[in-house]
Amino acid sequence: MKTKLTIAALSLFSVISFGANAAAHQVNSEQAQNMQSMGSISVSQTGSAPMDMRQELSQKATKEGASAYRITEARTGDTWHATAELYK
Predict the structure, then answer these.
(1) In the chain, what are the domains?
(2) Model confidence over 43-80: pLDDT tens digits?
(3) pTM here?
(4) CB 66 within 8 A of CB 85
């Protein structure tokens, strides 16, 4: 019984970690030179933190099928706005 529980737990952990690894990640301009561009996205929020914007960019990039993104524009103030280039 313990063995079955351990196997089930490991299987669940591997699925969760695969999902976390599948998210698009941020790259810099040097890293992006070796990647294929596939368009751009933008996000805007009111009263959020920069990490919230990165998370939203990553989620939106992943939804579009990108493996990475590079922030090309970021503005702050009462609202946050960011634009990013998507890469395969």
Answers:
(1) 24-87 (3.30.1660.10)
(2) 998 877 777 888 999 999 999 999 999 999 988 888 88
(3) 0.70
(4) no
